[in-house]
Write a structure and sequence with these properties.
Helices cover about 60% and strands about 5% of the residues. The chain is mainly alpha-helical and about 475 residues long. It folds into two domains: about 1-165, Preprotein translocase SecY subunit (Orthogonal Bundle); about 240-468, SecY subunit domain (Preprotein translocase SecY subunit), CATH 1.10.3370.
Length: about 475
């Protein structure tokens, strides 16, 4: 009861009165949230003296933010709260029965409180450790703006979950990936400033090199720079190949035939995706790594020297724990083409891949256990929807035993596989980080599935209780 009283003071988005929203309403609110996100990302912090986090811009994609703006915290507090609570529940330190509605409400309440705590904590850390250094006398004002921005992201996420497609966390990451991918392809501003379109040709010392790789390729061809053209072309090919592999892997699935117990002759196929937990394990793993790198950089900036977490140079880990689990800089392709590949670089790639495999698998299992995607929960949902597996008698225990053959193996294999894909994509290098590409493709595919699911519910009304 105490927790419920505390939660009454926390603002939240009102649930829609309709049991099922139409496609147009969901699309409208999703677009509204997307516009609000880009608007907030372009509001700079008032009273900001120095943005030391600017060198960590590659982490901004994972956090769904733009450092230096009012939403500099991004989805960091939401993801960190989810990670901590999943670890506590999974290790039984917090004994919460998530199979009951009361247990789920209690878990969601704790998650809201944890999110608020991390918003305040991270806002203070960013400013007091001079990651976002405030002008003297404006410290409290900058912290207050960060807290407001963090709460705005939480409310926008809540709005998408209740009125739109998917979740705000996924939407913000996909928006950031798309934004940076477009800039990486067609950015006409030079890497060191200036408009490259006005200096597209000329002597090597006079040319302003474009930022977008498509323009770099064209510019190198015109200026007869084969090495520059080859490097840009390899990056474009690697990016395209990564996209293709992720799209192909996303389409892998196991289909279980289901039939209606009261309507003979009617059946559907229930797809179990190879990536059963979708993009969630990679989001949590990448966010864990990003937080470690970010706080390691903040501590170094605060103390003036590196720590056991790592020593950072221009936002890139050069030693310590963060170095061995981070993606390599320069990437593997650059190391091979420049003949700088060595044993240390190979070991870093190996530990990076192992880190992603291990934690993606762990988070996949925890997510299945805590989000009602386990075999027991799914069997109850199927039975309540009037569906059963073709060829088996109608018994929840039988249904659960059949689902157990698929759910946990797919969870473990899918979590490990998505970890390998993300890590290898990071190591190979692309226009944006491999993890960002993986997240972008899978999130967009997830939005597509949500839309397709709504059409499936329109065709099979009995599925409404199953998909709700």
């Amino acid at each position: 009861m105490g927790l419920e009283k505390i939660l009454t003071f926390f603002p939240e988005v009102k649930k829609p009165s309709e049991k099922r929203l139409s496609f147009n309403i969901k699309l409208k609110w999703t677009l509204v949230v997307l516009v609000c996100f880009f608007f907030l990302a372009n509001i700079p912090l008032f009273g900001l003296k120095q943005n030391a986090l600017e060198r960590f811009q590659y982490l901004a994609i994972i956090f769904g933010t733009d450092f230096g703006s009012i939403i500099s915290l991004g989805i960091g507090p939401i993801v960190m709260a989810s990670i901590i609570l999943q670890l506590l529940v999974g290790s039984k330190i917090l004994n919460i029965d998530l199979t009951t509605s009361e247990g789920k409400r209690y878990f969601q309440g704790l998650q809201k409180l944890a999110v608020v705590f991390f918003i305040i904590f991270e806002a203070c850390v960013y400013v007091l450790m001079r990651g976002l250094e405030a002008i003297p006398g404006y410290t409290a004002i900058v912290i207050f703006q960060l807290i407001l921005g963090g709460l705005a992201i939480v409310l926008l996420d809540d709005l998408v979950q209740k009125w739109g497609f998917g979740s705000g966390v996924s939407l913000f990451i996909a928006a950031g990936v798309g934004w940076r991918l477009f800039n990486g392809l067609f950015q006409f501003m030079g890497v060191e400033g200036g408009n490259c379109l006005f200096h597209f040709t000329g002597q090597p010392g006079e040319v302003v090199e474009c930022g977008g790789k498509v323009l770099v390729f064209l510019q190198s061809l015109i200026n007869q720079n084969p090495q520059g053209a080859l490097q840009a072309l390899i990056i474009l090919i690697v990016t395209a190949v990564i996209f293709g592999i992720v799209v192909w892997a996303q389409s892998l699935k196991v289909e279980i035939p289901l039939s209606f117990d009261r309507l003979r002759g009617y059946s559907i196929k229930w797809p179990l995706s190879f990536f059963y937990t979708s993009v969630v394990p990679v989001i949590l793993t990448a966010a864990l790594l990003a937080n470690l790198q970010l706080f390691g950089g903040l501590i170094q900036n605060w103390q003036g020297h590196g720590t056991i977490i790592g020593t950072f140079d221009q936002g890139v880990a050069r030693s310590g724990l963060a170095y061995w689990i981070s993606d390599p800089h320069p990437n593997l392709i650059q190391q091979i083409t420049t003949s700088t590949f060595n044993l240390r670089g190979g070991l870093q790639i190996l530990t990076h891949v192992l880190f992603y495999i291990l934690f993606s698998t762990i988070f996949a299992v925890f997510w299945v256990k805590t989000s009602g995607m386990d075999a027991a929960s799914q069997s109850r949902n199927i039975m309540a929807s009037g569906l059963q597996i073709s060829g088996f008698r109608r018994d929840e225990r039988v249904l659960e035993s059949v689902l157990e053959r698929y759910v946990m193996p797919l969870t473990i294999m899918g979590g490990a596989a998505i970890g390998i894909l993300a890590a290898l994509a990071n190591a190979l290098g692309a226009i944006v980080s491999g993890t960002a590409i993986l997240l972008g493709v899978m999130i967009i595919y997830q939005f597509y599935q949500n839309i397709a699911q709504q059409h499936a519910v329109d065709m099979y009304p009995a599925l409404r209780r199953f998909t709700s």
